[in-house]
């Protein structure tokens, strides 16, 4: 990922959770729960949350793997990792989460290390999507599943128009009010470059995943890519 994107996420760290709640009317928590469920975490598992942000998906994984399991939360933003660490200490103080500053294109983990993985709103920001999927495939154990949640461009033209209107007239003004306008204005152009669901499925098959499904949610304005390694 670029230094510019890292700087963006470092700057938004203090208002990240508040903004996500406002901008999705709290729905992002439901979508993240769906991603957690699709990654199939079980008690005692070792799980990975890529682009962990302020840590809410990693915390959800930790609750499911329990005290006998392990969770690694990975992000390239030290400010977001610090926010996640403080949040975990207050919400889930058991030492089940290791916070790791790293690049998803070059993960500091062994082959076949994880029983499951998640990524929330990260794939759209990586500079080499196939390479990040290949790294994910490498570190998952055979039989493991991963779920990747992100924005999606709806196929319906009216919904696509609404999505653009919402980003320009709701998201950017709210972000402007909180002093992080430029940090959120990038979402719409990043979405224009982001592969749609069927293209994500093809990329996942190309790097070696055996079973791949893309689930459109929120009227196709969000999506979850679920991949399995055999």
From TrEMBL:
Keywords assigned by UniProt, alphabetized: Methyltransferase, S-adenosyl-L-methionine, Transferase
PROSITE patterns (UniProt xref): SAM_MT_UBIE (PS51608), UBIE_1 (PS01183)
Gene3D superfamilies referenced in this protein's UniProt entry, alphabetically: Vaccinia Virus protein VP39 (3.40.50.150)
Pathway: Cofactor biosynthesis; phylloquinone biosynthesis
Domain of life according to the entry: Bacteria
InterPro entries: MenG (IPR032904), SAM-dependent_MTases_sf (IPR029063), UbiE/COQ5_MeTrFase (IPR004033), UbiE/COQ5_MeTrFase_CS (IPR023576)
Molecular function GO terms recorded: 2-phytyl-1,4-naphthoquinone methyltransferase activity
UniProt record, GO biological process: methylation; phylloquinone biosynthetic process
CDD domains, sorted: AdoMet_MTases (cd02440)
Record EC number: 2.1.1.329
Catalytic activities: demethylphylloquinol + S-adenosyl-L-methionine = phylloquinol + S-adenosyl-L-homocysteine + H(+)
Pfam families: Ubie_methyltran
HAMAP family found in the cross-reference section: MenG_phylloquinone_subfam, MenG_UbiE_methyltr
Biological role stated in the UniProt entry: Methyltransferase required for the conversion of 2-phytyl-1,4-beta-naphthoquinol to phylloquinol.
Family the entry assigns: Belongs to the class I-like SAM-binding methyltransferase superfamily. MenG/UbiE family.
The protein, known as: 2-phytyl-1,4-naphtoquinone methyltransferase
Species the sequence originates in: Mojavia pulchra JT2-VF2
Name of the encoding gene: ubiE
